[in-house]
Amino acid sequence: MHCAPAPIRPLLALFAGLMLAVAALLAPQVHAQSASKDSLFSATPSGDFTNSPGLRGNMFSPGDVLAPPQTPLMMPPTGEAMPMVPAGKVALSLSARFGKQASVIKGGLIWRVFDAKPDTDGKFHLVKEDKASSPVLVLPAGAYIVHVDFGLATAVRPVTLRSRTVHEVFELPAGALRMQGQVGDVKIPPNQISFNVFQGSQFEANGADKRPIAQHVLTGQLVVVPEGVYHIVSHYGDANAVVRSDIRVQAGKLTDITINHRAAAITLKLVTQKGGEALANTAWSVLTPGGDVIKESIGAFPRVILATGEYRAIARNEGKIYQHDFKVTAGVDGDVEVLAK
Predict the structure, then answer these.
(1) CA distances from 148 to 34, 49, 129 (A)
(2) For the domain 263-339, what is the CATH code?
């Protein structure tokens, strides 16, 4: 094992400190872009993806195809001629790609350039921010730290500008997730389901202790993440219809995921006779056979989405308590009537 010469070690330590400081400085911004039963799902890459200019929050289209891996990397066009560079300043050309042999990322990037030297408070001064895919920045000669965001994927690098134009190409091996839910062959309405995304598999030792990297993601929304394994927790309604699924994200790929829920929507009614009118001002509790409370609500027609299984509905009205046992079958929505007798 070879060690760095003694004079270089302080520089290495300083660079490591700079990287940690910049990561801490940007952490809130990264997270701003942003918890079961059976795991029944299908997840397949829809194809290579590329950015659709002007569509923020839905940046990728699976119909667009990236250049094949064997295509030589070319410096991406900036859309403008190289700017005039005044004396004492240097042009910094930036771009990013999905990997060494992958294509250029064409949008959705946020570039930030910081002074390499912190101020008296230990903070790194933001010199420049740009959202172009391949910006050319004109800066005074000196040392900087360049940071790029692509959804939840990030990269950081020190850059020194002297006299000639500097070209920096960042590698961001990232992919995107797009999720939807269904019961049987029927898609779940977007306003009734949401998804949380966690890094790593649900079967890892500390899987239950992790915090989500993206919360309350809606149907059709895209989540851009570094390539790797993730687990998704899908919530259908606000009761116990929850499914967990593991998925692998590939760099440069948009992966569409369909999560299958075994559940149904049940409407509760307290009636004086079968088929009668529901009584208002009724307090409801839905319990498991073991007595665990799944859902509580108040009203004449509360609607609750429940996973398949057996339940007990308890209704309280005008100081009296009524109850009824019922069973939920996947995809069979319907009414559960409790007789006020």
Answers:
(1) 16, 19, 10
(2) 2.60.40.10
